[in-house]
Write a structure and sequence with these properties.
Length: 203
C-alpha cells in the first residue's frame, strides 16, 4: 500500500468504542464520571458527520445520556419523555430569560435533567425555535472567561463547546468533576492537531 492510501485507510477505519477515526481514537483519555443528573443532547443533523463534534464524547463520559439527532419536536420524542419523567429539566441556551447556571444550584426541587442543543450557534437557535416545548422549561447560560475549544470557529469569544458547557453545568448543579471533560477535549484536540493540523481559531 502506498503511503497515501495507507493514511487514507487509517482515517476511514473507525474505533468502535469512541467512533472516531483510529488515528484520533481518544478511548485512553476517557475517564467516566458519575452524576445523578441525566443528560439529553439535541443534535442538529449537520453535526453527526462532523468529526470534530464534541457532543459525541458526552455518552462516553457518563451513562445516562440520550443523544438524539433531529430538527422537529417529533424527532425528539425520547427527550420529551424524559422531561415528563424529570422533576426539573434545565435547557442550556442563551435566550433572553436564561439565568446563570449558578442560580440552579441547591434548589429545593433540584435539576435532574440537563438538555443541550448541539450545533453551530445558528443551528442551535433553529433547534430552539423549532421546539416550542423547550420554552416552558427552565433555561440557563454557562459562561466562563475563556474556552479551551479552538478547533472550530466560534461566533464570538468565549463560546463553549457542547462538551465544556455540559461539564461546567454539571459541576455547578451536581458537583461533577470537570477534569474528565477537559481531559477528553484536550485529547481530541491534541489528536487533531497532530494528525490533521489546521489553523487555530485565534480570537
Ligand atoms: Zn476509541
Amino acid at each position: 500500500m502506498d503511503p497515501d492510501n495507507e493514511a487514507l485507510s487509517t482515517w476511514r477505519e473507525v474505533c468502535p468504542a469512541c467512533r472516531y477515526p483510529r488515528k484520533v481514537c481518544i478511548c485512553a483519555d476517557i475517564e467516566p464520571v458519575s452524576t445523578t443528573v441525566s443528560v439529553s443532547v439535541m443534535q442538529d443533523p449537520s453535526e453527526v458527520k462532523h468529526a470534530k463534534n464534541t457532543a459525541r464524547l458526552i455518552p462516553l463520559l457518563m451513562r445516562s445520556v440520550q443523544l438524539t439527532t433531529g430538527i422537529l419536536p417529533s424527532d425528539f420524542k425520547p427527550i420529551r419523555e424524559r422531561v415528563q419523567r424529570s422533576q426539573r429539566s434545565l435547557v442550556l441556551f442563551p435566550q433572553s430569560r436564561a439565568k446563570p447556571v449558578q442560580d440552579f444550584a441547591n434548589l429545593a426541587v433540584r435539576v435532574d435533567h440537563l438538555i443541550l442543543l448541539d450545533g453551530t450557534w445558528r443551528k442551535a437557535k433553529k433547534l430552539w425555535l423549532n421546539n416550542p416545548w423547550l420554552h416552558a422549561l427552565d433555561c440557563a447560560i454557562v459562561t466562563t472567561g475563556k474556552t479551551e475549544y479552538v478547533m472550530r470557529k466560534a461566533p464570538f469569544n468565549g463560546t463553549l463547546s457542547t462538551l465544556e458547557a455540559a461539564g461546567i453545568a454539571l459541576g455547578v448543579i451536581d458537583g461533577t468533576p470537570m477534569l474528565p471533560f477537559n481531559r477528553a477535549l484536550a485529547a481530541l484536540q491534541q489528536r487533531w492537531f497532530a494528525f490533521a493540523p489546521e489553523p487555530h481559531n485565534t480570537p
